[in-house]
């Protein structure tokens, strides 16, 4: 089968590799679509560590091609998506119900082979059926949508809140839609790229800000004088992560959602955080949220296909990171067919 193999930062090769065999309790998935995300880009540029060599990619959907012994809930031809993270279920974090913080976590496309390939193997426990009204491309959004669900949970949005989203990439657009679903009265999106601001409005943002031409704090306080109830940094930008703290109202919440470099550092005034009693949270992975993501997509309460700006064949995968992050880009999608 063909696969995009990451050998080291900057070195990805599309090559022939062996089709994996499903073991006991595992299924073989013929992959149809795989999204490209900020983590993939971080892996490519060396901002995020990986176990090399590894087949990259983890946001995907496909069809069951074969099942291993003992598989009971899936069969060949089932349309599926996955939670790409494998927890050990033995460590202290797993046993306290925080499997996403597992000390032995293995993630597809990072530690174990991923989904920018024609086939992959996954445990039955990580695989979720998708209904016929959800396309393969839409289903490839289940993993990022599940991560966004986690971000909304960590923000503790209340009905009537004002939410500020910094960055309107794929994740910023998903957070925007989910914040509205959670009851936010205002969802303000700050994004320097016009194309992405337009998509944020299309996806329900009540206000957009161009930070290259407008002062974010000034525009925010025209809408909510005291600042935002919840601020999401969705770009993984260190300057934005620092600035996010000062956009929140007293007692507000800041969620650092974007994936920044593993060696990144920012400077924040602890007196300000203490005096304003701010709550700063990270948001990692997608614990127990994949089934909810599937249901949201099936209900059509969240739009995702309008976020796809570019499509690539697997054979053309080397072009992905030449395109990633450009001014007219959002979600890049790799198709295996």
What brief labels describe this structure?
about 325 residues; alpha/beta; Quinone Oxidoreductase, Chain A, domain 1; Rossmann fold; 2 domains; 7-stranded mixed β-sheet; 6-stranded parallel β-sheet; 11 helices; about 30% strand; globular
Distance between the termini: 12 Å
Tell the overall outline: globular
Specify the oligomeric state. Answer: single chain
Roughly what is the average pLDDT, rounded to an integer? Answer: 96
The proportion of residues in beta strands is 25-35%
Question: What does it look like?
Answer:
This protein is an alpha/beta fold. The chain has 2 domains: 2-141 and 304-335, Alpha-Beta Complex (Quinone Oxidoreductase, Chain A, domain 1), CATH 3.90.180.10; 148-282, NAD(P)-binding Rossmann-like Domain (Rossmann fold), CATH 3.40.50. The chain is built from 11 helices and 18 strands. It has helices spanning 38-45, 92-95, 136-139, 142-155, 170-181, 194-202, 216-223, 238-244, 270-275, 290-299, 320-323; strands at residues 2-8, 11-16, 26-36, 54-55, 59-67, 79-82, 85-86, 106-107, 119-123, 127-129, 162-166, 186-190, 207-209, 228-233, 248-256, 279-282, 308-313, 331-335. Strands 3, 5, 6, 9, 10, 17 and 18 form a 7-stranded mixed sheet that branches. A 6-stranded parallel sheet has the order 13-12-11-14-15-16, sandwiched between helices. Strands 2-1-4 form a 3-stranded antiparallel sheet, with no helix packed on it. It is globular, with a radius of gyration of 20 Å. The model has no long low-confidence stretch (mean pLDDT 96).
